[in-house]
Structures are given as C-alpha cells and as structure tokens.
C-alpha cells in the first residue's frame, strides 16, 4: 500500500511526458512540411545569437518594464526547474526533500526559489494589469481578440496558481518541521512562505500533511498539464526560441534571397537561340518550383518554425510604420495566420493518415489578404523588433512574389513602374532622350 502513491505518480509522469512527446512529434512533422533550406553556415555566429537573444534576453530589455518583468518570469522558470527535479525524484523514490543533505546549499536554493516565486507572482500581476486594465494598444489589436486574448491570460493564471501552490506547500512543510512530524526533517529556508504559516495555525498535524500533500500533487500535476498546454499556446516559444534564434537570419536585413529555380519560359527569354524542344538538362529535369508562396508548404521550414515561435507580443506590429498609419498590415497577424493555417493543414493530415487532402483553401486569400501584403514597405522594422528573431518580412515577400510572378496581380502603380523600367530604364514615364529636358526650364 505504501508504494501506491509512487506508482500513481509514475503513471502520471509517463502519461504527461508521453502526451508531450506525441505533440512534439506532430510539431516536428508540421515544420518539416516546409522546403529544405541550408542553414549550416556561420555556426559560431548562430551560437552567439542564441546565447545572446534566447538565453540572454537582450532584445527583451529594449523595453525596460516589460523586459524586466519577462526576465524575472524567465529566470524563475529556469531555476525553479531544479525544485521540480527534486519533486519528480521524490515522487518516484518515495523520499521527501531528497536534496536536503546538501545542507546550507539546499537552504540557499529553497530560499532563492521562494524569492523568485514571489517575484514571478508580482510580474504576472503586472502583466495582467497591462493586458486587461491599462489595455496597452498592442494587446487590443483585432488579431488579439478571442482565443489569443484568452490564451495570454490563461498562462498568467497558470503561472500564478503554480507559484501559490509552491509557497503553500513550503509553508505547510515548514510548519510540520516545527512540529517535528515524521519524515519532515528540518531543511530549507522559507523567507516568503513563512508569512503564510499564520494562516495554518490551529491545524492538526494530519490536516497540515493533507495541505502539504495536496499542494505538492497539484503543483507537479499542474506543471505536467502546463507542459502539454504549450503546444496549443503561443507560449510554445519557451521551447522554440532557442532553435529559432540559432536558425535566424544571418544575412544583412536588406538582402533578399534569390529565386530557387527558373522556368523554361524564362530561360528561353534569356536565351532566344535555345531549342524549346530540346531534352531538358539534368539539372532542369525536375518540375520547376512555384515562384513565391501561396500556402504554407511553399515556405521553407525555418519560416514555419518562425510561425510556431511567435510570442504574439506585438512588438513587430507596434513598430510597423504601415500599421501605425492605419494600414491593414500587422506583422504579428501574418505570423499568427501562417501558424493557424499550418495547424489546419496538420489536422487534415491527422484525419487522412498523414496525407494532405486539398481543402480548397490556402494561406494567401483565405487568411492573408492582398491588401495586407502590399501595405508592407519592406523596412525591416518588424524583424528588428522581434525579441526571438522572427522574420515576418520573408513570408510577406514570398507571397508578393507569387502574386507578381505567378498571377501578374501586382497593383497598377507597380506594374506601371516596372513597364517604365523595362521601356525607359527608369521608373518614370519619360523617354531616355527626354530625361534631361527639365534643365531647359
């Protein structure tokens, strides 16, 4: 009978981690729907970017208030995982405070965890106020209604409850230590939870054990539930920020990639003497790629990784000059739409044994409008602002390429400009011979 709690805990752990592993596999499959891209260059610079941006949070603190609060939550998340490791081992082995033999080091760790837990609670409350009371402009954009707003608040509630459970567990444990209860050896320091102890005065030893065990179970089960909630939440960036910053763009921001292939028609235009009926060369034998992108499978896998990594913080949109002047474009919405379409494609594949059955929809048109794409000034402000190295501009440019090169659907002004460049060597509708006539005036 004494091993039943350990068995139940092991089962819960296996189920939680197993479900998480299944979601990770699904996530990996969806990202791999993207085209291959070579990101093996500049490894040292990529490691530096990951260390500086994902681990060091350097782009978060550009905005000091939100940045400082986020760093607190981030550091709390990382360090308190040491306490989670102890809880897991205690649950499996039937021990209590397994690391307590570390003595003064253990006391310091528990005290640090409590201070961090308190700071996380403060930060979470500040974040909630900024979202729901102050209602900062970037959190009330149209794309942040419905589930995105609920998701943002949900994660704050989860973090708040987990920290409260941790401190309640420690408070009951501390009280039991004072009473000399069996198995509750004196270990740890409790700079924050000691203030909760008066709320437990008058409870019997059995009631205190019930409080401590209940908080312990809810805390660890809550963490397992949180782990599996990540896949359905914008907070997937907790895991993906590291690979995303590593594989992020290394080239100068103003440099765009060249098209991967050229169709036979374009090659004939470039070489009029070529035989249109000649057998294709070996490198041309494959079916030409689509110019640009109209759906998620047309992007490369790094761009799809970008979509899943989006934190929905809205810094890109708040910096976007087109959005600031009332245009429909929101770089954050571009990333959210790409992720939502990719998830929809994944669900279709799940329902058809791993095969994608066309559903008559695509990212371009059904999710992202032409108006949004052409509002972009390609200034790279969104890329610069993103705290986890996401590149919304690359997705915008690929869809604009598709509109121009596959559908000839560029705006009239752009078509006129390109015609003028072709005919006159300049974007203006003047013959080259007349270009300097203004001097005579």
From TrEMBL:
Keywords associated with the record:
4Fe-4S, Iron, Iron-sulfur, Membrane, Metal-binding, Oxidoreductase, Transmembrane, Transmembrane helix
Q: Which InterPro entries would you find in this protein's record?
A: 4Fe4S_Fe-S-bd (IPR017896), 4Fe4S_Fe_S_CS (IPR017900), HdrC_iron-sulfur_subunit (IPR051460), Helical_ferredxn (IPR009051), NarG-like_sf (IPR036197)
4Fe-4S ferredoxin-type domain residues are 301-332, 365-398
List the transmembrane segments: 6-24, 65-85, 105-129, 154-172, 215-232
Gene3D superfamilies from the UniProt entry: Alpha-helical ferredoxin, Transmembrane di-heme cytochromes, Chain C
**What SUPFAM superfamilies does the record tag this protein with?**
alpha-helical ferredoxin, Respiratory nitrate reductase 1 gamma chain
Q: Which domain of life is it from?
A: Bacteria
Q: Say yes or no: keyword Oxidoreductase present.
A: yes
Q: Which PANTHER family match?
A: IRON-SULFUR-BINDING OXIDOREDUCTASE FADF-RELATED, IRON-SULFUR-BINDING OXIDOREDUCTASE FADF-RELATED-RELATED
What is this protein called in UniProt?
A: (Fe-S)-binding protein
The scientific name of the source species is Flagellimonas profundi
